[in-house]
Amino acid sequence: MTATMPSAQGRMFIAFPAKPVPADLRRRAKEVFVMLQVAAPVSASPSSPRLSAIARRRREREAAKAAMVVTLGAVTVTGLMLLGHHRSHKSAIKSAHIVTGAAVLGASWWHYSLYGRRAR
Q1: Distance (Å, rounded) from C-alpha 69 to C-alpha 62?
Q2: Sign of torsion, CA 99 100 103 105?
Q3: Is the separation of the CB atoms in 1 and 19 below 8 Å?
Q4: Are 66 and 40 in contact (CB under 8 A)?
Q5: Which sign, positive or negative, has the C-alpha torsion 77, 83, 86, 91?
Q6: What is the reported pLDDT for 92?
Q7: What per-residue confidence (pLDDT) applies to 53?
Q8: Distance (Å, whole) CA 60 – CA 34
Q9: Which of 5, 66, 68, 119 is deepest in the core (most CB within 10 A)?
Q10: Per-10-residue mean pLDDT for the chain, 120 residues long?
Q11: How many CB atoms lie within 10 A of CB 116?
Q12: How far is it, in rounded angstroms, from Cα 49 to Cα 42?
């Protein structure tokens, strides 16, 4: 059994799989291939590098905020776990709490460094 798929240049190619490919898998592969071809091309306008730098900065800021949320959540969870007074692994939980606290400091410093000083 052979599968025929269009290539990136619009020509057809034939693949010879070792085992027969299920029909639903072939259908999904064709859908993904079509979605990849339909994707909008990147514009090459003169302001494109500036826009990409702005988008990159925005993505970094969002990632820093997400890191802060995750690390604060981890500190909260480990802090609540420390409240259990009869835990057998309290020293491991305490160490994890200290490490996640340091991660919060790192994430907050990363977030702070992405925003410049305000002009007064």
Answers
A1: 11
A2: negative
A3: no
A4: no
A5: positive
A6: 86
A7: 84
A8: 30
A9: 68
A10: 53 56 69 56 56 86 94 93 75 90 95 81
A11: 6
A12: 11
